[in-house]
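During the second half of the funding period, the structural biology subgroup turned its attention to how the target accommodates small molecules. The most pressing case was S-adenosyl-L-homocysteine, which had performed well in the primary screen but for which no bound structure existed. We therefore specified the complex as follows and requested a full 3D prediction, including the ligand pose.
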Amino acid sequence: MFQISSFRTSGKKYSVENGVCNLKFYALTLPFKTKPLKDTLKHRGMRNKLADILVSKGISDKKVLAAIRTIPRHLFMDSSFEGHAYQDKAFPIAADQTISQPYTVAFQTQLLEAKPGQKILEIGTGSGYQTAVLLQMKTKVYTIERQKELFKKTRLFFSKMGYRPKKTIFGDGYKGLPEEGPFDGIIVTAGAPKVPKAFMAQLKVGGRLVIPVGTDDQIMTLYIRNSEKEFEKKEFGSFRFVPLLENKN
Ligand code: SAH
């Protein structure tokens, strides 16, 4: 005998048990594994604790801390790591990449000193968490990712969450984004063996470039463009990033 046990229509699941049709809601089916985008008071409490840890580690920029308290980091991670979202640790995301440690995100954002309305270029969209922090600070973000899988996944996630970068680009960030430059700030979230010249060229006078430089581990480096020809360089200790690689994948 042919029997229907369940069927789906327009975001609702109907299951048929003993001839009784039950209605259940289910998460919209999308090409990627989805989960309900739930942010609870408990998550918020954990974020506040995380922000306190970052303060104890030396983060002092109030706007950066407010962004950490606001952005639901657990939603940027694969669900198997969700329980760890509010530890101050990096975790794997798709395509063998990582979501940066919250301290690193906060430290880089603090060095960037981004003001509302400024144009910021981010190299390495990854999970989109750093992008969301920059958007929370009311900057105009242009973000580039070289891994197609991550790019597609994160772009979809941005639209589901209502995050609106000016541009989310699949491409090789090594070249910067000359057609949209110059930028008030450039933030590189992968370890660069050397500083690509394009980043210097696409910085406004007064602009800031935050880039981890090195191969095995990286020195967090800040360049400030003091004039057309003059850059000031400051170094801020050792960090660990996945490598900045050339070309798309
Ligand atoms: N900001 C991200 C960090 C992800 S890790 C987050 O918060 O999750 C760094 C990312 O840089 C990886 O996704 C990697 O694929 C990307 N990447 C490396 N080299 C790149 C390049 N040349 N252009 C664009 N993205 C690059």
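Two results from this model are relevant to the next phase. The radius of gyration is 21 Å. The mean pLDDT is 88.
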